[in-house]
Write a structure and sequence with these properties.
single chain, alpha+beta, 3-stranded antiparallel beta sheet, elongated, 4Fe4S-binding_SPASM_dom, 4Fe4S-binding SPASM domain-containing protein, rSAM_sf
Length: about 120
């Protein structure tokens, strides 16, 4: 292993309303910082919204190698649902240059959010 990357706490902002009783609300109340200026999220009309959403997705310039060698779309694809090949079976550049992976990146560059983007804490 070359290094470890710790992710911030993120909540799917497209989830049910923040006022409703749901696990997201309970987790947010328990773990989000109490001081507003240290929070990544605001509560607006009963829903969580990112304070500073990113204009573009940084994952169009990088990829994720999962534990079993599959090349994943991004770190929010916890279960490896959106994969493009396996590093144990193909060279990385073949996978990166494949039609499916190029199409995925083109959609991100054109601001077309995919189903997986619903879990993103930066968009």
């Amino acid at each position: 292993m070359d290094g470890v990357w710790f992710k911030e706490i993120c909540f799917p902002v497209q989830s049910k309303g923040f006022r409703e009783k749901n696990p997201i609300k309970e987790l947010a109340e328990k773990y989000l910082p109490k001081k507003s200026k240290k929070r990544r999220y605001n509560v607006v009309n009963g829903k969580l919204e990112l304070k500073n959403p990113s204009a573009t997705c940084s994952w169009c310039h990088k990829s994720l190698i999962l534990w079993d060698g599959r090349i994943g779309a991004c770190c929010y694809d916890y279960d490896g649902i959106h994969t493009f090949g396996n590093i144990n079976e193909q060279h990385f550049l073949e996978i990166w240059s494949s039609k499916n992976f190029r199409h995925y990146r083109e959609n991100l560059i054109r601001y077309k959010k995919l189903k997986i983007c619903e879990n993103c804490s930066t968009l």
